[in-house]
Amino acid sequence: xxxxxxxxxxxxxxxxxxxxxxxxxxxxxxxxxxxxxxxxxxxxxxxxxxxxxxxxxxxxxxxxxxxxxxxxxxxxxxxxxxxxxxxxxxxxxxxxxxxxxxxxxxxxxxxxxxxxxxxxxxxxxxxxxxxxxxxxxxxxxxxxxxxxxxxxxxxxxxxx
Length: 160
Ligand SMILES: [Zn+2]
Prior knowledge:
Bound molecules: zinc ion
Distance between the termini: 38 Å
Helix content: 25-40%
Structural class: alpha+beta
């Protein structure tokens, strides 16, 4: 394992093989701590990762169920980049991270957890952030509850 742990190498325990697509079902629900959608744009939205690498681990997801970026329309791609940038602005205000990882796993061999619905990860990082998260088995214990993170990120978008 490398010195700097890349979140892209270990994607989620989210393969709880539920029926259907978790992103498509999330976007059909009302936005709250159940579906974790913090902000909806016109073509894409911002959702918290239920199994975050660090507090504030967000994902930008298109409403369109497509496995890769090139199958999306240009407006959707443009908005995804805009939302990615807004995520970083909001996270900077809330968590004052020192750095970010931003990227996508496209396809199974790249480590995608949900490979049929493309999504961009935004992960705030701090020097030595793996130290303040306790790793028990596969469960990482974060300094803040997901409900609290949701509230903070959602307000961040409302204020931004
Ligand atoms: Zn989907």
